[in-house]
Design a protein that fits this description.
Elements: H1 10-16, H2 26-35, E1 42-46, E2 55-61, E3 64-70, E4 76-80, E5 95-96, E6 100-101, E7 108-109, E8 115-117, H3 131-135, E9 141-147, E10 150-154, H4 162-172, E11 182-191, H5 195-202, H6 208-211, E12 225-228, E13 233-238, E14 267-272, E15 276-280, E16 284-294, E17 297-306, H7 317-344, H8 361-378
Helix pairs in contact: 1-8
Bound molecules: fe (ii) ion.
Length: about 375
Amino acid sequence: MKIDVKNIDVEQTQQHGLPPEVFKATEIFDKECDAVFRQGWVSLASAQQLPEVGDMLPVKIGNASLLIMRGADDTIGVFHNICRHKAAPLVDSACRKRVLVCPYHRWAYNLDGSLRAAPKYYGDSEQPMSAQDKADKGLLPVRSAVWWDTIFVNLSGDAEPFEEFIRPLDQLLEGYDSDGLRMISTTEYQSSANWKLAVDNFLDGYHVPFVHSQAVTLDSVMNQEDLFLSDNIAGLRLPTGASDKPAKTDKPLPHFRHLTEENVGTQQWFGIFPNTLLFVDPVWVQLIIVRPEAPTAASETLTIYAANPESMADEFAPQREALSAALNEVNQQDIELLDKLQFTRTAPEASQGHLVQAWDQVNVRFHQMWLQKMQAAEG
Ligand SMILES: [Fe+2]
């Protein structure tokens, strides 16, 4: 059965969530790749995954194959991971190079994406390629921005300026010094669920004390607040989420530098539409980037940061390891849940689910963001 996004009813969505078909239909996925993942600001990776000049990281998202590079000027650049000759893929896995050479016909590119040389471009001649012939054959650049160490891109090039897009959240997080973030670990996950179920689950505070009972008690989530920041950003806040938890060690990791008194005990987490999931604790930050690969396949990168550079001292190694293990355990539990949910949430009966006023309103907002973008693309 074909599903038409124009016929999805907003009221129905408020009560039951998006219809089951949108979590598995191929035609929906194809549409999302353009209407959501090319039109909007989407995240790809953490900048600290590329610490040195010449670091390269290939990332596929939706129907795009991209390459992140740290250039000679130390800034992050993003390009299509496609040779300008016959569109061969350039880089398969993370690496460090000064010159990027296409494996197909050895066209070579500089770190700024410009074409450096193409062997025997003029056939049987010693003449090197002219500047004029090189000029229009550089790698295709992608509009990008880095915020909270997260690399965002806008493939279409015509989304609103990134500063405008992120402003409501940037202002809310003004009291946090994101320059102090230091990557503790980064872990890749593979899920057989639709990408929207992963986002939906991250914005579901209701499940946390039940699915992750080893980490969170029911009492500690009772004062959850919903945060509706813009047409692209929603989240949740536990005003005493961090201070409610008993310290697991005598020497806890230090919190963000210059943290205000009101934020010392606060935990909050955000979904930045479509695929960026950010959790902010006083002493650590968790970034999950969800990348759709197919209607029922998504990959995730989970990056854990220390909020304060002092946390990277040797004396804190056991605490960092324990933190990373605990957060990865939680994510593994979610991945196992999502893989099973993919089957039940896409059954026809799933349309008869009942969302709850007290807990599910951020999920409802996420579903509406999706619907609005998809319907707008239909014209
Ligand atoms: Fe969870």
